[in-house]
Amino acid sequence: MKKLIKTLTAFCSIALLIAGIAGCAQKAATQDTSTAAPESEERKVSKVAILLPGYITDQSWNQGAYEGLKTLEAQGYNIAYTEDVQTTEMESTFRNYCEEGFDFIIGHGVQYGDACIRVAVDYPEKYFFITGNPPEGESDYPTNIAFYDYKEYEGAYVCGALAALQSESGIIGYIGGGDNTTQASDKNAFIEGAKATVPDIEVKTVITGTFNDSSKGKETALAMIEQGVDVILQTCDETGLGAFEACEEKGIFCIGYTSDQSGLVGDDLVLTSLMVSIPNMVTSQIDIIDSGEFGGIENPGLKEGIISLAPYSSKVSEEVQAKTDEVKQKIIDGEIVLTPNYNSGV
Questions:
Q1: How far apart are CA 172 and CA 232, in angstroms?
Q2: pLDDT tens, 112-126?
Q3: Quick one: which of 254, 228, 229 has its CA closest to 241?
Q4: Do domains 47-148 and 152-276+306-333 have the same CATH topology?
Q5: Which of 82, 184, 216, 334 has a 20 to 30 Å separation from 55 between CA atoms?
Q6: In the prediction, which pLDDT does 177 show?
Q7: CATH number of the structural domain 152-276+306-333
Q8: What's the number of CA atoms in the CB half-sphere (13 Å) around residue 314?
Q9: Class of domain 47-148
């Protein structure tokens, strides 16, 4: 009997020990979970959507935003995007994403500002971001919207200087995509930079009215070339790819847009590219949201590195490179101060 009691006592002790170990393990697991939980709770955004004016295959403006979105996806965010969102569809697309539970919604272009403001009022718990300036005359907009009024025109000014210095015919050209404030300020800054560098330079400009028509871009560039233009800056995405085709066929110098587009035209004809750090624009907003400082207007440009120029082509002489770099540095140092000119008629 005593032997049985000893055996039962030993068995109970082992059982209690196992139970204790299990309890400790369970407690440890609970502690680990509670440690991880605040990180997920602090994340104010989990689903990100973007409205695009064109297509993610344009190797320019829209592709850059898509790359930023994919970076967020790799970080664990749920993503969605809609391509070629035109004026009549803007507001409904914003609203649909809100209803689908997306908490951070981006309008990729200045043209989305008005529709975004109307929607943001109705969804104060959501975050909205516009890659462009607020609508003209609009200062009283919801605090859950941020506008990235980047100084793309600073880069366009430098490109104007480069084009004027590189031109042999004394005639250069600018091809834009849309009739909006960003495009107008790019065009006007290009003209200003060219004339400040070579006063008697002639500048021809065309706003095509579309970012998604390569045939129109090619047709426009060919018409310019027939008028003596020998350097063209395009800021019109897929339409600009058509302009590049014309430049390659005719052996005309060109300047790319948004990303380094030197590989899109042969014979080193792309002198440089006006680059915009679009992926960074998109991804950086998440940290700003989490910090509680989201909303308002940011104005980065050459100095902040959001706007930059791609490496020069071998066709750009050292002298022209030096003069162009001097213009760029003067903007960075504040010796040349530019203000956006949104007057599309200039």
A1: 6
A2: 999 999 999 999 999
A3: 254
A4: yes
A5: 184
A6: 95
A7: 3.40.50.2300
A8: 3
A9: alpha beta
